[in-house]
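INFO batch 0412 | record 1 of 1 | parsing
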Amino acid sequence: MKRKISRESVLKKLEQLAFGRANDAVKLALADAETVQADTDSLDLTLLSEVKRGANGGIEIRLVDRLAVIRLLLETLGDGGETEAERFLAVLAQAGSAPGGSDAL
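INFO prediction complete | emitting tokens
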């Protein structure tokens, strides 16, 4: 069964990667082996990229590059097709229709 991926679902995932919390990844890194086996299904490891446990007991975790994800999110969102001139004119139109707007000049 093919899963249809929508623009909204991609944007939601990018937002989660860019602004999500890494608490569960840290819990995983600090937990002992028994706890890890019992608890991994309940952990949100979305931001986790890599885990390494060294022979000497050292732990290394790598998370998703948030800056790269934020850049991708900004590129994906774009400016909504609105130019700076269009935004400026929209602000002027709003100011003119507001109480005390252009009539007050």
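INFO post-check: The longest helix spans residues 84-97.
INFO record closed
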